[in-house]
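Example with several molecule types.
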Amino acid sequence: MKPIVELVDVHKVYDMGEVKVHALCGVNLTIAEGEFTAIMGASGSGKSTMLNVLGCLDQPTRGRYILDGQPVDDLDEEELARCRRMKLGFVFQNFNLLHRSTALENIELPLVYLGIGVRERYRRAKEVLEVVGLADRINHMPWQLSGGQQQRVALARALVSNPRLLLADEPTGNLDSRTAAEVLELIARLHREESLTVILVTHDAEIASRAHRIVMLHDGAVVHDQPSPLCGGPPIPAIKSLAQVSCGGPASDENAGGRP
Amino acid sequence: MTAVVWIESFRIAFREMRRHRTRSILTMLGVVIGVAAIIAVVSISQGAKHSIQGQIAKVGSNMILIIPGSTSQGGVHGGAGSAKTLTIEDAEALQRECSAVAYAAPVSRLVCQVVSELGNWSTPVSGTNADYLRVRSWGVQAGRPMEPRDVVSGAKVCLIGKTTAQNLFGQEDPVGQRVRIKGTPMQIVGVLEEKGQNPLGYDEDDSIIVPITTCFRHLAGDNRVHALVVSAVGEKEIPMAINQIRTVLRHRHQLREADLDDFTVKSISEAAKTAEKASNIMTGLLVTIAGISLLVGGIGIMNIMLVTVMERTREIGVRMALGAARRMIMHQFMIEAATLAGVGGALGTILGVLGSSFISNKTGIPAMMTPWLIIGPMTFAIIVGVVFGLLPARRASRLNPVESLRHE
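Resulting structure tokens for the full complex:
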């Protein structure tokens, strides 16, 4: 399988004045097309930083990042925005729908930045709304939708531009367990049926177990990279049991994960 | 691609304006007032200028008036025009010797009782020569104008104004009829074109014109010339004509170097120009104040846009994550600022047009609207919006997407 994501010795250092915070310490990771990977880690483990790098929202201090065959670690802002537009879909923990726009308008947004005309936007938005099972909520405002419905709209928004990679940051974190299961099932189904490449960031082992591959981060380094139990891998280790891996600086909870 | 983003940005701009109706209206107020004031001030002052120019054209825009100076005998000053210094020959000399003078006519004026077969009427009578009508750019509507031979022979003929004709003859054709002016029978040879009121409000059509020689002999009882009216060959030559007139008259009146002029030369358009200059300064001042109001309006827009950027930081982050380039975010907020200013400008334009027609109604000064007067302030308002939108838009576009997404 062709790799979609290739991280080679990726470091991310935040200069906080007196202290330098190493959020990522030489991460190596390759994710192939069609894979469903869960990235796990405690808060402060560097998983948010990793997601920002993977999502072209932030750039590594050192190391290479090749996204879909294109090195992106030395791109300028304009080209990074282009990458996000063309190749990536985001789902956030707090949905991040625009409150003043209808479900349809929210979903159309990425297509606006792709320069797609009104009619085509409408057609494609309607199509993905059907995929996520909300065709009847097309003109609803976000506040008229339940949490699960909002996240499904967000998912539709992430999919409407046919991204190469879906990045989901704790997508079920704000949902009750039943709704969470529904959303998770939807993501799994999209992966299965549309062979979508999915990277799911979570701290919850139960949710991570729906993925096919488990990558665990601790203090900015990969400490576990195995198939999930679902695919015959070993059980997911408890986060707290992981050994301390140091790379030159303190990575407290507050500093490493809490900042970009 | 940009076109789609721009259209979307306009849509967002109008939606945001509707959402924050009160805030938007208050923000636009400075622009509304500025644009309205500019339109009202300029249209009224242009209208006033235009009507003054129209009245000057009516009098004769190249006209120069020469009146005798004051007498001063034994310490008693007679006031302007009291001296008997001007003569028919002076007029002839001006026409002959001054290259910048086109026509010159002496005028002797008095009010006479005029009697026709149908009625009688008291009216101003001007004794003058054949060139008078040319100086005044005044034509004859029926019959013939005055001719040089009428003046030479002192013919008992007259030209009659429209109002006078109506008062003396009603609907009858006055040409060829006889009237008695101060008891002297005269034949009406022509009817003057309608001229309406002069700038002082006198009805120019209530008048009779006779040859100046006839006036001296039969009506006035003396040979006093009350004024010379002269027309310059062109508006530009007026100052030159005035110089030449002074030189010729001083020479003819045998004034020495140290003597003051015994006459006064006045140019209608010069006087009007002075008045116009003063009104231009006033207009300029008012437009500047209105412009400052527009600029203050721009600062208001900038302020609100900065607040908007703060409030919508999260939204900006989401847009960036979904692929909006910094340039697109920048355009979006600049379009929002320009739309605020543009809508303010449009409201201001409506208010300005209504305001100027209201002022026009109250004062009687005609308001003059030109397309430029609509396009100009409107464009200025939009430019103000774009310029003052620049800083907030830049700030929005420079936000860090990761931090913006975390913004509460």
